[in-house]
Write a structure and sequence with these properties.
By secondary structure, this protein is an alpha+beta fold. The chain is built from 3 helices and 5 strands; from the N terminus they run αβββααββ. It has one domain: HIT-like (HIT family, subunit A, 2-Layer Sandwich), CATH 3.30.428.10. β1 and β2 form a beta hairpin.
């Protein structure tokens, strides 16, 4: 499989890892859109958010890890956003589901 995030999980491609659990990996985005911009991914290959619905344990693990990273990064009190882009039309460029954890600045609504 030629998946960038699978290669990061395997240690074949370097990443600035923030934290890791048995089921997830969290690392800094290489093109940050906020002072805190961390990607949280499941260690199993799932192509997008819609397919993640078939893996509720992975979804729960990603959510728990995103919350833990927000706390560790100090944005849990001030507020943060968790975003899943699904499909190229929504800006997904790596087709391994990933949550964008964004914080450390004002996050306007609506986004985009």
């Amino acid at each position: 499989m030629d998946c960038l995030f699978c290669k990061i999980i395997l240690g074949e491609v370097p990443a600035q890892v923030v934290s890791e659990t048995e089921h997830t990996l969290a690392f800094r985005d290489i093109n940050p859109q906020a002072p805190v911009h961390v990607l949280v991914i499941p260690k199993i290959h799932v192509p997008n958010f819609a397919a993640l619905a078939e893996h509720p344990e992975a979804l729960a693990a990603v959510a728990a890890q995103a919350a833990a990273v927000a706390k560790a990064e100090g944005v849990d009190a001030s507020g943060y956003r968790v975003v899943f882009n699904t499909g190229s039309g929504a800006g997904q460029t790596v087709f391994h589901v990933h949550a964008h954890l964004l914080g450390g600045r004002g996050l306007n609504w609506p986004p985009g």
